[in-house]
């Protein structure tokens, strides 16, 4: 009797492990970024981009969108983040066509449309600059919990990843490598 009990427990334990492993495969590998739980619809962004085209976040369903808050006069974090995102998209190859990168200005005075085009064009001409008036941008900063200091500096150093269904799914720390970000994007793109 004791052997049957041990065998039953072993079978039960093995089944639990298989179910757990299966669930991990179904729900995808762990993300390198921080999951936003529960995932909710990303706050709307509706601005004219630096080229004068209407940018409406909710119209981009079916694509993964990366939103970064920064400014063109930044000398460290913003250019490093854009360079990292450039490498990330390059590593994705053709899949990068399904990813939109947009930088929302944190310096409405100096981030003119031309300044944003010039800055982002150094990294990837497809990166979108989103300038706007102080009032327009303050609402977006507030919606995303971004604190902006004088001169455009922010206290939030994250890239916000919005999945193909328009849900805010991840915050990606700017310290992550381009490989880590690409890994997370591959999971979101496969969903």
Pick out its properties.
23% strand; alpha/beta; Glutaredoxin; two-stranded antiparallel sheet; 191 residues; globular; six-stranded mixed sheet; 2 domains
Task: Explain this structure.
The chain is α/β, with parallel strands linked by helices. It has two domains: 30 residues; 159 residues, Glutaredoxin (3-Layer(aba) Sandwich), CATH 3.40.30. 39% of the residues lie in helices and 23% in strands. Strands 1-8-7-4-5-6 form a six-stranded mixed beta sheet. Strands 2-3 form a two-stranded antiparallel sheet. A hairpin with a 5-residue loop joins strand 2 and strand 3. Helix 2 packs across helix 5. The longest helix is centred in the N-terminal third of the chain and has 26 residues. The radius of gyration is 21 Å and the shape is globular.
Tell me the number of helical segments per DSSP (H or I, 4 or more residues long).
5
Number of domains: 2
Q: What general form does the structure show?
A: globular
Strand order of the largest sheet: 1-8-7-4-5-6
Quick description:
With 191 residues, the chain is an alpha/beta fold.
Give the topology.
Blueprint: H1 2-27, E1 34-41, E2 46-48, E3 54-56, E4 64-70, H2 77-92, E5 99-105, H3 113-121, E6 128-130, H4 134-144, E7 158-162, E8 167-173, H5 178-190
Helix pairs in contact: 2-5
